[in-house]
Design goal:
The complex is a heterotrimer of chains A (about 400), B (about 90) and C (about 300). Chain A is an alpha/beta fold and about 400 residues long. Helices cover about 40% and strands about 20% of the residues of chain A. Chain A has 2 domains: about 1-245, Thiamin diphosphate (ThDP)-binding fold, Pyr/PP domains (Rossmann fold); about 255-385, Rossmann fold (3-Layer(aba) Sandwich). Chain B has 2 helices and 5 strands, in the order ββαββαβ. Chain B has a two-stranded antiparallel ribbon with strand order 2-5. In chain B, strands 3-4 form a two-stranded antiparallel sheet. The relative contact order of chain B is 0.28. Chain B has a domain at about 30-90: Alpha-Beta Plaits (2-Layer Sandwich), CATH 3.30.70.20. In chain C, the strands form 2 sheets. An 8-stranded mixed beta sheet of chain C has the order 3-2-4-5-9-8-10-11, sandwiched between helices. A two-stranded antiparallel sheet of chain C has the order 6-7. In chain C, helix 1 (about 25-35) packs across helix 7 (about 185-200) and helix 3 (about 70-85) packs parallel to helix 5 (about 110-115). Chain C is an alpha/beta fold. The chains are: A alpha/beta (about 400), B alpha+beta (about 90), C alpha/beta (about 300). The interface between A and C is large, with 43 and 45 residues.
């Protein structure tokens, strides 16, 4: 069904259609409209679920951990400082192999306090054992949440999924979307059947102490599962795409990259802006393209390599930093290309931190500058006046 | 899924762990003379390794007893004695 | 009729790795067993978690989950919400449990949230009065003048400078159905309080005094005796509250605090320091007056 809807409300609606039994959240801008939407659906009797208003994000994550361990489908959403406060539980949920789904309304982190969009928050938990998806637009955000539950609860996977959606840019924007019908989601997403759960009739203990004799194997097991998840994500995305009649989800999406000499790699909503610039430059005969990473964890090495191996120049444009080193996705791609042999010139660009507007001119600047090698990450759009002594 | 990824404990499987080997000094001797089956030794045992069914039937499972001495201490009839580990029961 | 003492009926199995004479092990065994098979326990990080569940073994015969140090109450809230969603809450007891640090310090916010939200959960705090799992560091429930590794006795210190945080009163202030203190020295009373707590709907709270031979520095055979003296000196009042009202206190024939202190290494310095001794006497006196403990 086509409808004109705010990003957050679209997510609330699609989550409700995925029928979670336990929802818990703590309010943080710009996540609030999502959980308000879910609370209202429950209040109106349109969703049968327990909504637990907690005293912190740490407890929100802990409540969904408990609910999931008890064998029920769960949901939480947060942002920025909230995700950082959850961080301890985030690692725990993955280590316990609980298929929680979390929406991160991506936002900058403090200090200085800033409620606007970038990806520094979810990058802090990229190594936690969660599967990470990033949405380009509201439609993709809807689709990725449905795919997220199916992948997370797949018995071969049993890992949590974080869906990153850009704060404000997507959470508070309106878009005409195709909202899947309840029957379609019910057909696609069967009832959650946990591998083990807290069951008085089969009283197992969960969350044991893993001494040096078992710990490293638990991490290796997640790593192996992450590798397996690559094909599961592709299969699940394909199954879903066939049901809704449009291609969505998956690992990566290349846009006009087939013969591209210059490719920008990016995640999230910025990809839409880059696509517009690509179209404009293509009309002028420039061989440019953009590679969107939809699935950031597991990192789709093969798909990224295939997309970039014939390019001359690659720019990784990130809304995240690793202060004191190059930005995270750049580092991973540089390592990947080095190891696999193709050697385009790869450079790192930081853009749009803390909600700074990203203009088509800045994207053009990246396309223009990416053939010039620089030792360090370049910051785009700096106000030099602010940096004067 | 790779099984080790999901660390789950089978109920009561700690029984595989014979903590009686920790005992170094003393062990309880159940005299079975004046026992009134008050059950206090059973209740107080931190190991949960004392059993009995009626007066003068109580006994500790030395596979698990760590020799803390609480059973002997709480016995109202002084019918449990702490003896040297090497001594015969 | 003979009482059958069958360890297999304990829902807390032998083979765990608690120290000999551990008070917490005794209390935890009673809590799980009284609660029965239809129980799910969410356990905070701490001694109890470590000594019962080293992979791949577990001492628990009830469904049990551990996540982190400060979130047992929140994890239990999630379990309880799931049980409500599944329509099983009336047939299952949900228990959250942790030590004094996990409850009164790092887990305070999570506990308060659980109590305030009205979950049908029994929270049990095993109070051994310091961070024992990490090596006897001071917690908010460490008693006045106690010698711990982070409140050591020295030229300028007589041990922990602060009295115990009023944890039970904080729980009571949430106007919950039932809150009580108990002691491993009075097992029938502990059993009765667990049963009673579980008979109420909504959140309920139990604080159980559990001596730690290693941390308190006493002989492993004295765990019960020391816990008993804590109650009989007025230093650990056993009381019950229902909806914020005090409904019972365990009356005592008051004994001097020295009898309690002298059995424990953590208080050895107090006995040689009249001012410190008077401070401890004042704590006992205030408890005795406040609750009318004296027979």
């Amino acid at each position: 069904m086509k409808k004109f809807v705010e990003g957050s409300h679209a997510i609330a609606e699609v989550i409700a259609k995925c029928r979670p039994g336990v929802i818990s959240a703590y309010p943080i801008t710009p996540q609030t409209h999502i959980v308000e939407g879910l609370a209202k659906l429950i209040a109106d009797g349109e969703l049968e679920a327990e909504f637990i208003n907690v005293e912190s994000e740490h407890s929100a994550a802990s409540v969904v951990l408990g609910g999931s361990a008890a064998g029920v489908r769960t949901y939480t959403a947060t942002s920025s400082q909230g995700l950082l406060l959850m961080a301890e539980v985030i690692f725990n949920i993955a280590g316990m192999r609980l298929p929680v789904v979390l929406t991160c309304a991506n936002r900058a982190v403090s200090a200085p306090i800033n409620i606007w969009n970038d990806h520094q928050d979810s990058m802090t938990v990229r190594d936690s054992g969660w599967i990470h998806f990033y949405a380009e637009n509201i439609q993709e955000a809807i689709d990725l949440h449905i795919i997220a539950y199916k992948v997370a609860e797949d018995k071969r996977i049993s890992l949590p999924v974080l869906v990153g959606i850009d704060g404000y840019v997507l959470t508070h924007a309106f878009e005409v979307v195709d909202m899947p019908e309840q029957e379609l989601i019910d057909k696609f997403l069967p009832k959650f059947e946990p591998i083990v759960h807290l069951d008085p009739d089969n009283p197992v203990s969960m969350g044991l102490l893993g001494a040096p004799d078992v710990y490293i194997e638990t991490r290796y097991a997640i790593e192996k599962t992450m590798q397996d998840a690559l094909s599961v994500i592709e299969d699940v995305s394909e199954e879903y795409s066939n049901l809704v009649g449009r291609k969505t989800g998956g690992l990566v999406e290349g846009y006009r990259i087939e013969d591209a000499e210059k490719i920008i790699v990016a995640i999230g909503s910025i990809v839409g802006s880059i696509k517009d610039v690509v179209d404009e430059l293509r009309e002028k005969g420039e061989k440019v393209g953009v590679l969107k990473i939809v699935t950031y964890r597991p990192f789709p090495k093969e798909a990224v390599y295939e997309a970039l191996k014939n390019a001359k120049y690659v720019a990784v444009a990130e809304k995240a930093v690793s202060l004191g080193a190059d930005s995270p996705i750049f580092s991973e791609i540089a390592a990947l290309m080095y190891k696999k042999g193709a050697r385009p010139l790869i450079n790192s660009f930081t853009i749009g931190l803390g909600g700074r507007d990203i203009s088509p001119a800045q994207i053009k600047q990246i396309f223009a500058d990416m053939d010039k090698d620089e030792p360090n990450t370049r910051y785009i759009g700096l106000n030099e006046k602010l940096l004067e002594a | 899924m790779y099984p080790i990824g999901l660390l789950v404990g089978r109920p009561g499987s700690s029984m595989d762990n014979k903590t009686g080997s920790w005992r170094s000094d003393k062990k309880p001797k159940f005299l079975q003379k004046d026992c009134i089956a008050c059950n206090m030794c059973f209740e107080v045992c931190p190991e949960g390794c004392i059993s009995g069914n009626g007066k003068n039937t109580y006994i500790a499972d030395y596979d698990y007893c760590k020799g803390c001495g609480l059973c002997a201490y709480v016995c109202p009839k002084k019918d449990i004695e702490m003896i040297d580990e090497g001594e015969e029961l | 009729m003979a009482v059958v003492a069958d360890p297999k009926q304990n829902l807390f199995a032998s083979g765990h790795t608690a120290c000999a004479g551990c008070g917490q092990a005794i209390a935890a065994k009673i809590v799980a067993t009284v609660s029965g098979k239809k129980t799910v326990i969410a356990n905070a990080t701490g001694c109890l978690e470590v000594f019962t569940t080293k992979a791949p073994q577990t001492a628990w015969r009830v469904a049990w989950v551990h996540s982190l140090f400060e979130n047992a109450a929140a994890v239990a809230s999630g379990v309880e919400a799931a049980m409500r969603y599944l329509g099983k809450i009336d047939e299952v007891n949900v228990i959250a449990q942790g030590g004094d640090g996990g409850t009164a310090d790092i887990g305070m916010g999570s506990l308060s949230g659980m109590l305030e939200r009205g979950h049908d959960i029994l929270y049990v705090c095993y109070d051994n009065e310091a961070y024992m799992n990490t090596g006897i560091q001071r917690s908010g429930l460490t008693p006045l003048d106690s010698n711990t590794t982070t409140s050591p006795v020295g030229k300028r210190s007589r041990g922990n400078p602060r009295p115990k945080k009023p944890l039970l009163e904080i729980a009571v202030a949430h106007n919950i159905s039932y809150a009580a203190s108990a002691s491993v020295a009075f097992l029938p009373d502990l059993k009765k309080k667990v049963e009673k707590a579980l008979s109420y709907k909504g959140p309920k709270f139990l604080q159980v005094h559990v001596p730690c031979p290693l941390g308190w520095r006493h002989d492993s055979s004295l765990t019960i005796e020391i816990a008993k003296l804590a109650v009989e000196t007025g230093l650990y009042p056993l009381v019950e509250y229902e909806y914020g009202k005090l409904i019972s206190v365990r009356k005592i024939k008051v004994k001097p605090v020295e009898e309690y202190l002298k059995l424990q290494g953590r208080f050895r310095h107090v006995l040689k320091d009249e001012e410190a001794l008077n401070q401890v006497r004042e704590v006992a006196k205030a408890n005795i007056e406040r609750y009318g403990l004296a027979l």
